């Protein structure tokens, strides 16, 4: 409409420039409105994305920490189990060794006691026999009765059961047979 009213070129040019300026202003307004709308939409999304990003990072960190703690706990439990098994094996070995030592010591003690008893019995028997022979010899030698010596030296005495044969055996070496 502005073009129809214009008579000359200059007026046409002013109208064209005004229309161009109005178009530029409208474009700038629309562009600004678009930027404002974009900012209005983008801002909350960026904030949400930042929050979601932070939540994801926290979740990842928590998961990594939990996994590390679980791995450390498992390693500690395995180490404790291995140490307990080693201690149990050592205790069992020590108990077995001590039991074997005690059994061997008891067996050796019994053997020594039996050997000592046997030696003591043999020594007692020998001492009793020697003392018996000495006592009999002393009784015979000390005896002033020649009758007893004569009786002991009688060759027929062996048939008399009332005379102890130990006495007869002890006296006979001293007898002089005619």
UniProtKB/TrEMBL annotation:
Taxonomic superkingdom: Eukaryota
Keyword annotations of the record: Membrane, Transmembrane, Transmembrane helix
Keyword Transmembrane helix carried by entry: yes
Transmembrane segment boundaries: 55-81, 87-110, 117-141
Protein name in the entry: ABC transmembrane type-1 domain-containing protein
């Amino acid at each position: 409409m502005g073009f129809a009213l214009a008579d000359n070129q200059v007026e046409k040019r002013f109208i064209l420039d005004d229309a161009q300026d109005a178009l530029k202003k409208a474009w700038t307004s629309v562009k600004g409105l678009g930027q404002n709308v974009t900012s209005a939409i983008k801002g909350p999304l960026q904030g949400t994305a930042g929050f979601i990003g932070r939540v994801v990072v926290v979740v990842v960190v928590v998961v990594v920490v939990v996994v590390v703690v679980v791995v450390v706990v498992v390693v500690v439990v395995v180490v404790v189990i291995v140490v307990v098994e080693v201690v149990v094996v050592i205790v069992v070995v020590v108990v077995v060794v001590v039991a074997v030592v005690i059994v061997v010591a008891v067996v050796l003690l019994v053997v020594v006691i039996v050997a000592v008893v046997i030696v003591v019995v043999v020594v007692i028997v020998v001492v009793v026999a020697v003392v018996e022979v000495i006592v009999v010899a002393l009784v015979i030698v000390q005896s002033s009765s020649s009758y007893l010596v004569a009786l002991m030296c009688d060759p027929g005495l062996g048939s008399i059961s009332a005379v102890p044969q130990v006495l007869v055996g002890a006296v006979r070496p001293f007898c002089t047979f005619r």
